[in-house]
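Next comes a single protein record:
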Amino acid sequence: MNRKYPFYLKSTVILFGLILLVYILFYLREVLVPLSFAMMLAILLNPLANKLQRWHIPKTWAILLSITAAFLLIASIGYFLSIEIAGFSDQLPALKKKFAELSIEFQHSVKQQFGINMQRQNQYLNEAEDGLKPLLGETVGTVMGTLGIVFLLPVYTFLLLYYKTLIINFLYEVFAEENSTNLSEVLNQTRGAIQRYTFGILLEAIIVASLNAAALLIIGVDYAILLGILGAILNVLPFIGGILAVILPVIIATVTHQGFQTQLFIMASYIIIQFIDNHVLVPYIVSSRVKINALASIIIVLLGGMVWGVSGMFLSIPFIGILKIIFDQIPDLKPWGRFLGTEVPTRHKGQLWSLRKKYRSNHY
């Protein structure tokens, strides 16, 4: 006999389960973050590994060649960036000297305009520096975590690809046979969603980097290619990425150019690029790959950032896309899938129910 529990009891159990899930995700983040990235990379490399096996290459070597190709591509991009950064570092002493001169001029201007003496300004700067130390510590921790991901990522990716059949068979054995069709649909859609989303992110980054670099070259900003690529990488981070992307070239222009005309051109160019990215690239290249509405995207990105930091902000969108696919296949969870989706109904349920009652009263 099916027993119906009151709403307050069910909601309490669900809330407790969500709190427990968030705690587990946060506590085990050092293991789950690299494993999550490895799952995405394994899904991306799976077609290449399968193709190599069809060419009669042994499974182990096919997986190793696929992972090697991926990391060679990443290493080549890193090598190009290192060359650009090396050229930037050669000019760093001159830039530091110019920045120090501009800082002194700015402090004199503040003293003349607001009457704050140099000693008081230095005190404020020292207090701000002390406030930034915890943030710098978190940044160092993030860098160390990233290095951990780099070393664990190929190991996890290899094992996931090698034991792919074992994992899939386990999923089919866990679920009942009558649910095998739904499970197959979920797996296929999940694989396609992650592949399309990742390729969409890469395509968006290439276009944004090209637009950034072209704009900075036309304006005449030094290190335009490096700043354009860094801006595209930062742009992957929702909300704060676009702000950081424009701050870097503005600082370089302030140090290397006289006046403020160049900075205004940079901000105007980046506003136009951000408009193109937000209204053309993201809706048609990225968001169209994973059918999640803007409200759910913003909430899940912020929650992902609170639980897993920058990695959580990046992983939140494909993960919520996978959840939507699962919700759409389970009848009791379909309302949640519709809530996360991009289809906006023209009428709410209350209006439809009122029309239905009115129709019945008129005909009966």
Q: What stands out?
A: Residues 135-144 have pLDDT under 50 and may be disordered. The chain is about 85% helix and 0% strand. Residues 118-162 form the longest helix (45 residues). Residues 31-86+116-174 form one domain.
